[in-house]
Specification:
By secondary structure, the chain is of the alpha+beta class. The protein has 45 helices and 18 strands. The chain starts with 22 loop residues before the first helix and ends in a 36-residue tail after the last helix.
């Protein structure tokens, strides 16, 4: 045992006065304000509270056990400064108060020890809800660090982007929330809660993910949760086999040792103090504990009898008639406890296990220790048995029959000389009349055994006989020879170690010194409490002073008998039932006096044989006992003391008290007396106010529970519940008082912002309400909203059968009821902070149900629904204000951190733009807040019992938004006019409100709509004016460079129109009528703008086409400006379908009678599609006309060779003699080259392929028609060879060219073409030019090469790549007309370098291949073009004829001014048309 240090030793003298054990001093000490010292750090973990807690009813602020305001005390850990200011008297008073506190705790611990050591009323519940480990402040920081490490990629956990986003969202919303820090400070957040909140968030995310074949969403959920567990796993797991500390046993059923350790921590009792108390109180002795309980019950019955005689000792009741009922309840409670105790089996702890064999090494053998008691599973609340004390059953001898188990082991024989060493010997053993048992046979030289014999007998004084035999070697012998015999008379108190016994042998034997080593072990039955030899003499029994063998037998928990036995007898010779007897020590002189009075004829010498006397006395009877040694006397007296159940504890006489021969119990008692523990052990429980003691015990237990590593929310551990239940039942603590104290403690914790489960408060409140209101507990104490089984209610909350109500209980209940109502209203007002993120689960629902119960007048009358609704409505109105104020403060702090202000003197003026930014951030926070409310606090709105709460929550939201509306209106009013930075605010708010079915079109939504409607109208008006001005200015400065699908102005126009419509559409205007009006207005505005755009484009198109063609018409190429204009109109057609159509249908402005006035004002009388189609058709006609004019001029040149004309005859002669004009093939090639270049230009620069195909078909048709008409006019004339070769080349090549462009066969082979083909065939035959043509035109290789080129260009255009080279070629062809030589581009025509201009608004860079041609390039040589076959044909001509002198230089360039070439000879291609 642990010995205390010398500094803690006290004087050996026992202080007999127990100043603090009286009821008055204890109750006054408890009620005077001596509150408990709070464990260190109980209130510092959460920091200062964020909001003011509700005040108590009387106006005093309620604090926890850390100290009360106004009680004149300092903090639990006063500073050195405050310590120095105390006077000596105050220091002494403080020390005295601390000493009284220590004494009270130790005394309370004594009662707790007795409750744990021998429970007979309660059991440890094993069906309580499992509590998870809570997250501490350091644990939260570690969790945040682990998650941050994962997000930074510092872990080896595999993840994808979706899981990363989920963890990031979890971190920002939950882990970094200030409310999480608050719940951690309150001790209400568990690791399980963190995991469940993460699961809740990812469930919503996974539901929004698209389905993936072969991968179910459940699999994704399981994988994500496994990754979360890997992220948050504990770094230091507990080692296998490591013993858990007591604080970690929050969910398990505890052993006695663990319960002792638990309440040492609860009551701050030192370990050595516990050891002193444990040994001195004999907690391991079930007999001592049962005797203590019997003494306590007798004392309580005496107190009840005294209260029945003196009614002033009773507490004050609400009704006078309850006094008689109170007496009945007390007697019933005592009888219940007696019944519980009587029902316990006498064999407390059960039978001990026995081994069949002793170990081979017997040395140091010790008896096996037996369990001191059985764990009880009885409940004091379920017992209604009563014990009738008026009739005491008289015992018979058959009631005290005992059964003994005897183990006999023969080990060795010594000094055996009468037999040779090779002779076989063995032993037999027997107990009384039982069967004999024999050992193994061994040689005489090795007389060793290890054989055990087990016997059972009912004789308290059995006789054990062990005999040694040698085997008779004779063949005819029947019996073996007995060598010796040992007779042993064991008792349960005999030594269990092996001993040498001298054997009885025959007189003539050589083995006179024969000894046998035998171990005899006689077990003590559980109902035998003590045994031994005593001298005794009494009046009715044991009338002669004689030494007898006595046994103290326990028949039941309340019945004992002292019996005397004779040897080999199972029934007692005499017995005395100890009911009503008391035992005490007596001096030898007093013993002699009693002896003389009983038997006057006897001599004093008749009492010889006894030295230490004690007697048992009852009215009319007395028995004197004596022992020969003092320790035996003490043991017998204490056994009698436990059996009689007397209140007086016998004290040894002074003459014998100083004896040095003390037993273990006496030594423990002296040791306890030495350290001042005897006064606590000897204190009578009946003299204490156990209600006050229990209130303190329960308060300290709650403090300890809230400090342990579990998120208990106020629920006790199974061990704590067990001890508190046993204490209440054993010491008579009223159930209502217990729950009232519990409610008071829980409310104090709530007011300190510690998280307490509302369901726990509801349990205790329902119990108290049912008791105070005089009603029995209803079938469901938590109301209809909680579905609980009868078993749950029976286990958690059952009536204690008490019908009396004290005045103190009623007053305390009324006070607690009001405090609880205020606290519940406070929690509802701050529900986001009291129950953050819906934790504890279902807490808000439990709070509402509890509030409804608190508002009830009694337990049976339901509260009117309107009253509950009004209270909750008021709380939620206040909640809206609290939430908005805190959110505004949070937004302000964020704004200050984002825009730190330097220290300035005076008022800091915040610009309106900054205020608007802060307001938008506040709006985002408000939306997040309400979404969290809907997510975490509306899980039960669909239940019928709480249907009304949904409406109140909607009103709460509306009030919340009304507070926001005030700030919004003020800030918007400060904004300068015509600023549009507030539209994001509208989008944030409207996007949330329109998706909330409860807030959609509500008060705030309507206010928001009315506030922003004028701004939207003003914005649209200004945008319309701005776009109109940009069209006017843009087209005035437009250079008509191809950009995007049109020009710069058109791209900007269409982007602005689309952006405006997208912006208005994204507003999702809540009013359908106004939204439709905005949509119609934007569509009509788009019609006007597009119409203006195409009109200006068409005007510029006409101007551009009026520019004349140069002298050599075949060198003409369409300018890129023309193509850009065409693209503008074509793009307008595509954009009009999106910008000017409602539901995909064009706006028909002429069919709206309600807009006739507007139609007339804005000329909304034509469809934009009709206008575009008309403009497009006109452009096509004009463009074809421009291109046809080239053919017209070419045919004009050919007309000069007509037959019969003077010019024709001259040219024919000149051509034949000197070849002045060359052949017609050159002119045909020039025209074909013109066609090819312009076809390529149109196909590449105009974006609409269908429009390109249409213009190709029309161009082809007009060309063929013109050629047919020209030939028809010359039917009566034969064609000149020049004309014939030119036309033949043109007709064949254009057919091929247009075929390559995708024209259909039937359109190519028209009637006009057939007529032309027939005529040209005739003319060719006439001129006999077939061979010449074949030589000049070559074979089909040129056509095949051209076909491949066209197909490659089509594929490139379809892909949108490989266009830069084509643009360079087109630029070279175009520069042939626009840029003679290497001069600069024409003014207004030369576009900038691609990529160096500013990007188009809202668009990307210009499409590859669509940009304008590069300026500054010289015109290419005509015969180097890819589309020209002149090189091949020129080479074939050179093979057949020499080059004439007058033929122009093939490397020469046409002269636009008609000047002669450098050789001084006129160029026939530059000659003007004679007919022109």
């Amino acid at each position: 045992m642990l010995e205390p240090s010398s500094s803690e030793e006290e004087d050996d003298d026992l202080n007999t006065q127990n100043s603090f054990t009286t009821q008055d001093s204890l109750s006054s000490g408890y009620k005077s304000g001596n509150s408990l010292l709070e464990p260190p750090g109980a209130h510092q973990n959460g920091g200062p509270p964020r909001a003011v807690s509700p005040m108590s009813v009387d106006g005093s602020t309620k604090t926890g056990p850390g100290g009360r305001i106004g009680d004149g005390r300092g903090s639990p850990s006063p500073s050195l400064t405050s310590e120095k200011t105390l006077t000596e008297a105050e220091i002494a008073e403080k020390q005295q108060r601390e000493e009284d506190e220590r004494k009270q705790r130790i005394q309370l611990y004594v009662f707790v020890l007795r409750s744990i050591a021998y429970p007979f009323n309660a059991k440890q519940p094993n069906d309580m809800i499992k509590r998870h480990h809570k997250v501490t402040k350091d644990g939260l920081e570690k969790l945040r660090t682990k998650v941050d490490s994962f997000l930074k990629g510092e872990t080896q956990i595999p993840s994808d982007e979706a899981f990363q986003n989920a963890v990031h969202c979890y971190t920002e919303i939950f882990l970094k929330s200030e409310r999480v820090s608050g719940i951690v400070a309150g001790g209400g957040l568990s690791q399980h809660d963190c995991r469940e909140i993460f699961r809740h968030q990812i469930e919503k995310r996974i539901r929004t993910l698209p389905e993936i074949d072969g991968l179910s969403k459940d699999t994704v959920m399981t994988s994500w949760m496994a990754k979360y567990d890997a992220i948050t796993k504990d770094d230091e797991p507990r080692r296998p086999g490591q013993r858990l500390p007591t604080s970690m046993l929050g969910n398990e059923v505890m052993s006695k040792e663990q319960l002792y350790d638990l309440f040492q921590q609860v009551l701050n009792v030192k370990k050595f103090e516990h050891q002193l108390l444990y040994n001195a109180m004999q907690l391991d002795s079930s007999d001592e504990q049962a005797a203590a309980i019997r003494r306590e019950l007798d004392a309580r019955r005496e107190k009840v009898s005294e209260m029945e005689r003196n009614r002033k000792l009773m507490p004050k009741f609400v009704l006078k008639d309850m006094e008689g009922l109170y007496i009945e309840e007390m007697n019933m409670a005592i009888n219940t406890l007696k019944g519980n105790l009587e029902s316990l089996p006498v064999q407390q702890g059960g039978k001990s296990e026995k081994s069949n064999m002793l170990p081979k090494s017997i040395r140091g053998m010790k008896p096996r220790r037996r369990s001191s008691m059985l764990s009880r599973s009885q409940s004091s609340l379920s017992r209604g048995d009563e014990v009738d004390e008026s009739h005491v059953t008289q015992l018979s001898k058959s009631d005290v029959v005992l059964t003994f188990q005897i183990e006999v082991v023969v080990l060795e024989v010594r000094n055996l000389k009468s037999v040779p060493g090779t002779r076989i010997i063995y032993c037999t053993m027997e107990v009384d009349t039982s069967d004999k048992l024999a050992t193994d046979q061994v040689e005489a030289s090795k007389p060793y055994w290890d054989t055990q014999g087990d016997f059972s007998t009912s004789h308290p004084l059995p006789v054990v006989k062990v005999k040694l035999y040698s085997e008779n070697p004779g063949m005819l012998s029947l019996d073996d020879k007995e060598l010796g015999k040992v007779v042993i008379r064991p008792t349960p108190l005999s030594s269990k170690a092996p001993e040498w016994y001298k054997a009885n042998v025959s007189k003539g034997s050589q083995d006179q010194e024969l000894k046998i080593k035998v171990a005899v072990r006689m077990d003590k039955p559980m109902n035998m409490k003590h045994c031994g030899y005593l001298y005794a003499m009494g009046k009715t029994v044991w009338k002669k002073w004689k030494k007898r063998y006595f046994v103290l037998v326990q028949v039941s928990q309340y019945t004992f008998a002292i019996c005397s036995y004779k040897e080999k007898k199972s029934d007692p010779s005499e017995m005395l039932q100890l009911d009503g007897y008391t035992v005490d020590y007596i001096e030898p002189a007093g013993a002699m006096f009693y002896h003389m009075n009983w038997n006057r004829k006897s001599n004093p010498d008749d009492l010889e044989g006894g030295k230490f006397f004690f007697n048992t006395v009852r009215e009319g009877d007395s028995v004197l006992f004596a022992t020969e040694d003092e320790p035996d006397s003490h043991n017998w007296v204490m056994a009698f003391y436990r059996a009689t159940g007397q209140a007086h504890r016998p004290a040894p006489p002074v003459t014998t008290g100083k004896s040095s021969s003390l037993n273990k119990n006496q030594g423990d008692a002296d040791r306890a007396r030495k350290h001042g523990m005897e006064e606590y052990i000897a204190a009578d429980p009946i003299t204490f106010d156990h209600h006050a003691l229990f209130a303190k015990l329960q308060n300290l237990s709650l403090d300890w529970r809230l400090q342990d590593p579990f998120a208990s929310l106020g629920w006790f551990t199974p061990g704590q519940v067990f001890v508190l239940d046993e204490y209440c039942a054993r010491y008579g603590v009223r159930g209502c008082f217990r729950h009232l104290c519990y409610l008071e403690d829980l409310l104090e914790k709530c007011e300190k912002h510690q998280l307490i489960d509302p369901t726990l408060i509801h349990f205790s409140y329902a119990f108290c309400a049912s008791h105070v209101h005089g009603n029995s507990v209803p079938n469901n104490p938590l109301g209809e909203k909680f579905s609980m089984t009868d078993k749950d209610i029976d286990d958690s909350l059952r009536s204690d059968g008490v019908g009396t109500v004290t005045q103190e209980e009623k007053e305390k209940f009324t006070e607690i009821k009001e405090r609880l109502r205020v606290q519940l209203e406070y929690q509802l007002t701050n529900f986001r902070f009291c129950f953050p993120f819906g934790r504890p689960e279902g807490a808000l629902k439990s709070t509402l149900s509890l509030l409804e119960r608190v508002l009830m007048k009694d337990i049976s009358t339901p509260v009117p629904p309107n009253e509950v609704r009004s209270v909750i409505k008021k709380s939620l109105e206040n909640a809206a204000l609290v939430n908005y104020e805190r959110l505004s403060e949070e937004a302000r702090i964020e704004a200050d951190l984002a825009n730190p202000q330097e220290d300035m003197v005076g008022e800091v003026i915040v610009p309106p733009s900054r205020k608007l930014e802060d307001l938008i951030r506040l709006a985002e926070l408000c939306v997040d807040l309400l979404r969290q409310n809907e997510e975490f606090y509306a899980e039960f709105q669909n239940e019928t019992a709480f249907a009304w709460f949904s409406d109140l929550l909607v009103e709460h939201s509306e009030i919340f938004w009304s507070l926001f509306a005030v700030d919004m209106d003020n800030i918007l009013a400060e904004q300068p006019p015509d600023t549009w930075d507030s539209f994001p605010l509208f989008q944030i708010l409207n996007d949330y409100l329109r998706t909330d079915d409860n807030l959609k079109n509500g008060k705030f939504h309507q206010h928001l709509r009315d506030t922003f409607a004028p701004q939207v109208v003003r914005y649209v008006d200004l945008m319309e004016s701005s776009i109109a001005q940009s069209i006017h200015k843009g087209f005035e400065k437009e250079r008509w460079e191809i950009k995007g699908n049109g020009c710069a102005t058109s791209e900007d126009l269409f982007w602005k129109l689309d952006a405006l419509q997208s912006f208005i559409r994204d507003l999702h205007w809540p009013d359908p009528e106004f939204g439709h009006h905005l949509n119609q207005r934007l569509k009509l505005m788009a019609c006007d703008m597009i119409e203006s755009c195409i009109q200006r484009t068409y005007t510029s198109f006409e101007t551009q086409l009026k520019k004349g063609i140069l002298i050599d018409a075949t060198t003409y190429v369409l300018p890129s400006e023309i193509c850009a204009m065409v693209n503008v109109v074509l793009d307008a057609k595509n954009q009009s379908l999106k910008l000017c159509a409602v539901d995909g249908v064009d706006v028909d402005k002429s069919k709206k009678p309600d807009e006739n006035a507007k139609t007339k004002k804005h000329k909304y009388h034509t469809k934009i599609d009709d206008q575009i189609e008309k403009t497009s058709a006109n452009m096509r006609v004009l463009l074809i006309g421009k291109l046809i004019s080239v053919l017209e001029k070419t045919l004009g040149k050919l007309s000069a060779y007509d037959e019969g004309s003077m010019m024709g005859s001259f040219l024919s002669f000149a051509n034949k003699k000197i070849n002045v004009t060359g052949t017609g093939v050159d002119l045909g090639k020039s025209y074909v080259s013109f066609v090819r270049n312009n076809m390529d230009t149109i196909a590449k620069r105009i974006t609409d392929d269908l429009w390109v195909l249409n213009i190709m078909e029309k161009w082809y048709f007009d060309q063929v028609q013109m050629l047919s008409t020209w030939l028809t006019d010359r039917l009566d004339k034969s064609l000149h060879p020049f004309q014939c070769t030119c036309l033949a080349h043109i007709v064949k090549k254009i057919y091929t060219e247009y075929e390559l462009q995708g024209m259909e066969e039937d359109k190519l082979n028209s009637n006009f073409y057939q007529q032309i083909e027939q005529r040209m065939a005739t003319e060719e035959a006439t001129c006999v030019l077939q061979n010449a043509e074949a030589n000049e035109n070559g074979d089909d290789s040129d056509d095949e090469r051209r076909r491949k080129q066209v197909e490659a260009k089509k594929k490139a255009k379809a892909r949108g790549d490989n266009k830069d080279d084509d643009d360079d070629k087109l630029q070279r062809q175009q520069s042939k007309v626009s840029v003679p030589g290497k001069g600069p581009p024409q003014p207004g025509k030369g576009p900038p370098q691609p990529g160096k201009g500013p990007p188009q608004p809202g668009k990307g860079p210009p499409q590859q291949g669509k940009g304008p041609p590069q300026p500054g390039k010289g015109p290419p040589k005509p015969k180097k073009m890819d589309s020209d076959s002149s090189d091949t044909e020129g080479e074939e001509d050179a093979k057949k004829k020499t080059k004439p002198k007058g033929k122009p230089n093939p490397q020469g360039k046409p002269n636009p001014q008609g000047k002669p070439n450098p050789q001084g000879k006129p160029n026939p291609q530059g000659k003007p048309n004679p007919q022109g």
